[in-house]
């Protein structure tokens, strides 16, 4: 039994490792696995009191950062909820755009209004290719999203007043 214990080493994981453990866990692994893979790759440290305290402090710091980031995202979602982004695009007389409105254009417009929105937060259900008002979802986190209105107007001078009213009239 004593020889088996000599082949095992306690390490503190610096990252999540599949089938071994999670960040901050103290696990027993074979000495060869620790010395030849985990330690040189920086995936683990020898489980000393100082290293355990260091990782515990780091976990606490990360938890505080995640909490503060979450609060910022919640505030951003509350402030932008129901906002309206007006995007100008070239369109023909029937209100069909020559291109489409992108998430980047919507996010840029919202940022110009003072909202904190990243380009990848804009979730388009499909291409916006018509003049008018469209509902768009903003996803700040897996469980945190909100809706905004995107008003697409024609920037071409060739449109009459009948197509500037939302593009919902069909001919």
Describe this structure as you would to a colleague.
This protein is α+β, with helices and mostly antiparallel strands. The protein folds into 2 domains: 2-76, Ribosomal Protein L9, domain 1; 78-154, Roll (Ribosomal Protein L9, domain 2), CATH 3.10.430.100. The chain is built from 4 helices and 9 strands, in the order αββαβαββαββββ. It has helices at residues 2-6, 31-38, 49-80, 103-112, and strands spanning 8-13, 26-30, 44-46, 84-89, 96-101, 122-123, 128-130, 132-141, 144-154. The strands form 3 sheets. Strands 4-9-8-6 form a 4-stranded mixed beta sheet. The chain has a 3-stranded antiparallel beta sheet with strand order 2-1-3. A two-stranded antiparallel sheet has the order 5-7. The termini are far apart.
Please describe the topology of this protein.
Layout: H1 2-6, E1 8-13, E2 26-30, H2 31-38, E3 44-46, H3 49-80, E4 84-89, E5 96-101, H4 103-112, E6 122-123, E7 128-130, E8 132-141, E9 144-154
Parallel strand pairs: 4-9
Antiparallel strand pairs: 1-2, 1-3, 5-7, 6-8, 8-9
- Biggest β-sheet, characterized? 4 strands, mixed
Secondary structure tally, helices: 4
- CATH homologous superfamily (4th level) name of the largest domain: Ribosomal protein L9, C-terminal domain
Number of strands: 9
Helical content stands at 25-40%
């Amino acid at each position: 039994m004593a020889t088996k214990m000599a082949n095992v080493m306690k390490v503190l994981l610096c990252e999540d490792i599949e089938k071994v453990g999670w960040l901050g866990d103290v696990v027993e692994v074979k000495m060869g696995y620790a010395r030849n893979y985990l330690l040189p790759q920086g995936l683990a440290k020898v489980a000393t009191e100082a290293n355990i305290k260091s990782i515990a402090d780091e976990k606490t710091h990360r938890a505080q950062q995640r909490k503060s980031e979450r609060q910022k995202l919640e505030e951003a979602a509350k402030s932008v909820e129901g906002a309206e982004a007006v995007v100008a695009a070239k369109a023909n007389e029937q209100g069909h755009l020559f291109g489409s409105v992108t998430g980047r254009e919507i996010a840029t417009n919202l940022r110009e209004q003072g909202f904190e929105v990243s380009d990848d937060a804009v979730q388009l259900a499909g291409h916006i290719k018509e003049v008018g008002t469209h509902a768009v979802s903003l996803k700040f986190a897996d469980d945190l999203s909100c809706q905004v209105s995107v008003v697409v107007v024609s920037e071409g001078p060739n449109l009459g007043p009948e197509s500037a009213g939302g593009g919902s009239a069909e001919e």
